[in-house]
Write a structure and sequence with these properties.
heterodimer; A: 276 residues; 6-stranded mixed beta sheet; 3-stranded antiparallel beta sheet; 23% strand; B: 255 residues; mainly alpha; MetI-like fold; 0% strand
Chain lengths: 276, 255
């Protein structure tokens, strides 16, 4: 169970960056079911994320990790507690918080370039500067010559790359990613994980990643927040002290399996490993 | 023969065979022309009208097209209105379903009394018959918008109007065209009904006036012309769909 003392003791592995960018304080979401019963999706969730950190949320399905992400995206109001982003509560548009979904969610009626521009279009008319930035971002994600294509002409991995480019178009401080690589094949997935680390290294975005994959969480994160289910609570917050930059060799690091095992124990209980 | 050529040749052969059988039966059984005119008699009936057939087709076509345009102008915004907001939907939808339950043919003579015996009344009748499928299709498309697309526009901070224009309406395009395909054929029916009750020109008028004089082949020629108009309009809608919204012809929307 998450306790306040545990949270306070958890320090981000990033040194020198101590500014809190995201804070959830006793945040909770209770859904009212049709029969009138209250369904507690997330309860008393406390988490501070520092500027430039990558934090993963892992946990069994139904633990409310997507609900936490949706609260930060402004798609779900907390029914209890508070959320601060960059010290404020108001946010509007991808310039503050951008989201990447599990499915690419490209608009099939727009070209790839126009899809990348969509967060701009949602707020105002696009300018030539916006278009050249969109083109640059497509080059960053390796789709420099795909801007004029329609989404259906791209593979699943390329579509997800385009959606990552879209999330960066308004230079947000925060990237929220809801199982962004979950629908991809293993090779594409590995490719995009490393690309995400590159993007993080060059832009310093703060990233909150929801994932099913323990290995993905350890590979990418500065800290991993393990959630327990029914009600969704923060169970443990684990700092991953594996040196950065990480690469495809990181899973061979001696500490990697230690962290992965610890997370597994948190989720399945300490006896689960003997079963494997 | 290649499958694509077969797709064109086979229906033509079947159609020719159908006409030939019809002609043969009419002639061999000596069926009176006022009961069932043979294809050649219908052709002769049409040829006797000559230019009159074409000018009256133009009159009816104009009523259909104007009425259809009005149906779109009414049906699409109304479809958006009833689907985009739960309150408007709950308030307006039952009313519209009730209005649609009224057989327009039955109130057509009443509409003539109310609005007079001119083109306006005919346009009102066409619009009343054709807007409903367009409205329902639009509303269905708007409500079908995937949640993830709406989440995207909400996180992006799109205003409600922007969300409709940039997400919901484009997503509804293939649905709307489904409604337009039905709407345009219903508009033909509406125009004929309007001309039955109130006109001194047009194909619908020609059908009633020819029948009154027992000139069945002439009336049938007008009916064939109406069918041709209907098919051409239907295919025109398809053509516009393919030309302007080719992305929506793929059957994996939202991926």
């Amino acid at each position: 169970m998450a306790t306040v003392s545990q949270l306070k003791s958890a320090r981000p592995s990033h040194s020198g960056k101590t500014q809190t960018l995201i804070e959830l304080a006793h945040a909770g979401v209770t859904f009212q079911s049709r029969t009138g019963d209250a369904l507690v999706a997330v309860e008393d969730f406390n988490l501070r994320i520092q500027d430039g950190e990558i934090v993963s949320l892992v946990g069994p399905s139904g633990c409310g990790k997507s609900t936490v992400l949706r609260m930060l995206a402004g798609l779900q109001q907390p029914t209890t507690g508070d959320i601060w982003i960059g010290g404020g509560r108001q946010r509007r548009g991808f310039s503050e918080v951008a989201i990447v979904f599990q499915r690419p969610t490209l608009l099939p009626w727009l070209s790839v370039l126009k899809n990348v521009l969509y967060p701009v279009r949602a707020l105002r008319r696009t300018t030539a500067a916006d278009r050249s930035r969109a083109q640059e971002l497509l080059e960053v994600v390796g789709l420099g010559d795909m801007g004029a294509r329609m989404p259906h002409e791209l593979s699943g991995g390329m579509q997800q790359r385009a959606s990552i480019a879209r999330s960066l178009i308004l230079d947000p401080k925060i990237l929220l990613m809801d199982e962004p690589f979950g629908a991809l094949d293993a090779l594409t997935r590995e490719d995009l994980q490393l690309d995400l680390l590159d993007i993080h290294a060059s832009t310093g975005k703060t990233i909150l990643l929801v994932t099913h994959s323990i290995n993905e969480a350890v590979l990418l994160s500065d800290r991993v927040a393990v959630m327990s289910t029914r009600p969704g609570r923060l169970q443990e917050l684990i700092s991953i002290d594996i040196p950065t930059p990480r690469s495809h060799e990181t899973p061979a690091h001696p500490a990697f399996h230690h962290y992965a095992g610890r997370i597994r124990d948190d989720i399945f209980g300490p006896n689960a490993r003997s079963r494997a | 023969m290649s499958p694509s050529a077969r797709k064109i040749v086979l229906p033509i052969l079947a159609f020719a065979l159908f006409l030939g059988l019809w002609e043969a039966i009419s002639v061999s059984l000596d069926i009176p022309v006022y009961l069932l005119p043979s294809p050649s008699a219908i052709w002769a009936g049409g040829a006797k009208l000559g230019m009159t057939l074409l000018t009256n087709t133009a009159v009816t076509l104009k009523t259909i097209l104007l009425g259809f345009a009005l149906s779109c102008a009414v049906g699409i915004p109304l479809g958006v209105l009833v689907s985009v907001n739960r309150l408007t939907s709950e308030a307006i939808y039952p009313l519209i379903v009730f209005l649609n339950a009224i057989p327009i043919i039955s109130i057509a003579p009443i509409l003539v009394v109310i609005f007079g015996t001119d083109e306006t009344t005919r346009l009102i009748i066409v619009t009343l018959t054709a807007f409903f499928p367009i409205m329902v299709a639009t509303a269905t498309g708007i409500m079908d918008t995937p949640h993830e697309m709406l989440d995207l526009s909400r996180v992006a901070g799109a205003a409600p109007v922007t969300e409709i224009l940039t997400i919901r309406l484009p997503h509804a395009v293939p649905f709307i065209f489904g409604g337009l395909r039905i709407g345009v054929t219903v508009a033909v029916i509406g125009a004929v009904v309007a001309e039955f009750v109130n006109a001194n020109r047009g194909l619908g008028f020609l059908v009633t006036s020819s029948t009154a004089q027992f000139a069945i082949p002439t009336a049938m020629a007008c009916v064939v012309m109406l069918a041709v108009v209907s098919v051409i309009l239907y295919e025109s809608v398809n053509w516009i769909h393919r030309l302007l919204f080719s992305w929506s012809l793929r059957n994996d929307p939202g991926k």
